[in-house]
Write a structure and sequence with these properties.
About 50% of the residues lie in helices and about 20% in strands. The chain is α/β, with parallel strands linked by helices. An eight-stranded parallel β-sheet has the order 8-5-4-3-2-1-11-10. Strands 7-6-9 form a three-stranded mixed β-sheet, with no helix packed on it. The longest helix is centred in the C-terminal third of the chain and has 17 residues, at about 230-245. It is globular, with a radius of gyration of 18 Å. Bound molecules: 1,3-dihydroxyacetonephosphate. The site of 1,3-dihydroxyacetonephosphate has 16 residues, from strand 3, strand 11 and helix 10.
Amino acid sequence: MLVNFKEMMHEAKQKKYAVPQFNINNLEWTKYILEECQKLNIPVILGVSEGAVRYMGGYHIVVALVESLIKDLRITIPVCLHLDHGTFEGCFKAVDAGFSSVMIDASREELNKNIEITKKVVEYAHPKGVSVEAEIGHIGGVEDDISGKLFYARVDECKTLYNETNIDSIAPALGSVHGPYKGEPKLDFKTMREIDEALEIPLVLHGGSGIPDYQIKEAISCGIAKINVNTDLQIVWSKAVREFLNSDSKVYDPRKIIGSGENAIKTKIEELVYIFGTKSMK
Ligand code: 13P
């Protein structure tokens, strides 16, 4: 059964670690992520962008795929299926199809409009037990349909958005970007801490790929309880597949080709969740 992120993120915030959100693209990625997180015995949030929803065929197939894998692979860890950077329409479709969580991304709008849109999504999602994340400021870089310049979030605006909408988590843009970083990221930890102190809900860090370990740890100490990772898994998977194809010019079985990236994805997940503290060092 799918769960929303409330309990897993609440626990993460209390115990000072972050739950990973790994974005999925297809059956294989979903399977590898579920298998690895089950092996490590950690909760996981499966993030799906609207681009990935379209790629996989639609909201219902995504729900059916994840629920079926949970059954067939006998997955017992908490799994949250979360729409990443949802539009207003996308959030309603995801809730109707059975997603257990959505992110409404109205961060391009003025604060009042962001509040109005986010509030409507919360009012629709909460009675169905679906958790809601919202964004404020604007996370830079490119991810599927989402691209743009970075705008830093402000504490007073985060407070107003939270008070007016009853969201369950907030992603304040504080220097992280989607995709690879040019140089070292400059996260605004001071504002992050102030937002954490001003709000009762956990904070989300987008653009989790390529942030140095010491900054990840600092971010968690400032209230981050969920870290989104997409690019990191894509990079290690493509590298492994490219090497495999270069090493065997005759291979044509898609299971061998796609599957040649399995270990790379699983190894990266293990490495990251130790850094996030989801899995503590033995
Ligand atoms: P990266 O692709 O930089 O890891 O960011 C993922 C993300 O924030 C998804 O919302």
